Amino acid sequence: MVYDDINTHSLRSELSQERWFGGCSADLQDALLVHGRLRRLIDGEALYSREASAEHALFCVLEGAVCVGNTDAQGSPTLLVYLEPYHWFGELPLIDNLPRLHDAVSDGPSLVLSVPHSRLLKWLDHHPVHWRDFAKLSAMKLRVAYQVLGEAGPLLQRFARRLWLLAHGFGSRSDQPRLRLSLSQELMANMLGASRQSINSALQKLEQEGVIRQYYRGIEILDLEALRLMAGLNTPSKLVRERE
Q1: Could you write out the three-class secondary structure of 97-157?
Q2: pTM
């Protein structure tokens, strides 16, 4: 594996768009940038595998996308979450020192910031107050997981909710949603445990309603408010409040 150094000055402003990093103190931001290294991945390349020990404690997608999920007993992929810039992830082994639970694989050429486990632990030993920041990061993920596990309703509504979550970075971009989502129909189907035909029908319905526009391997959200209503979310700020 080849890792490159980071231009910390240019990255800081970009990463600050993401809620968690933007809310961290300057000391923790500095530590993540100083100790982090850049890794380029080709399409389909594994960033890490489940049950592997954690060489790196934390990751952030800078370019491209990373699929986090597993393969079932029949060899079929299951997609847990689709991560685009600037999403931080992979922190659980830092907290519990146990092997990883999922595989993380690049979807297309990607660039990822990787923070070594040993370096970050050593820094935290001298700055223990910042453990609270990693608790906040995990708590945000847990809130989203509970919401997804408990979601109900017809496929179109659940699909609209998942698109809403994707646009808002699963809570990490509450104020700056990403309106252009670059993932294939196959990945969307894997994420919801649905057939590709069902996802295609849902996409056509959303496009007919003027909510989205489809393009190759992705969609553009044209009407975020209409998507919210189709997702069955009561108020525009519901997801934001649930993550406070």
Answers
A1: CCCCCCEEEECCCEEEEEEEHHHHHHHHHHCHHHHHHHHHHHHHHHHHHHHHHCCCCCHHH
A2: 0.81
